[in-house]
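Continuing the series of single-chain predictions for the mutant panel. This is the parent chain; the variants come on the following pages.
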Amino acid sequence: MKCHHIAFWTNDIEKLATFYKRYFEGHVLFRHSIDDFRCIFMRICEGVLIEIMSRTGLSATNSHERVGYSHLSLEVASRAEVNRLTEYFRGHNVPLVKDREQYDDGFYESAILDPDGNIIELAYIDRNVNPMV
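Parent structure:
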């Protein structure tokens, strides 16, 4: 068994798709709609699949800490890449919720918010410190 994709509900499907295209090299694989349901399947980064879904009547929540989804973590090749991406997103006024934090488990991370407030973590993992992940 393997993870196939991560899905997000949104009230503005095109805005969210544009964000992932612009900042994460997103490519639309297909679009689907039936009745009031719409979805866009995209490939981002190096093979991560996401599904962006919309329908009428969705309610928004402002909490970043809630039962359920927490964040999408994308691994990068180096600490320097975390630093570069952090400055890149800061320069584009993308909200930052974590700014270059080093943890004792070998993770070095920053995190941003997509237009709907979903957390996207940018992580470098030092395998000398943590060879288990």
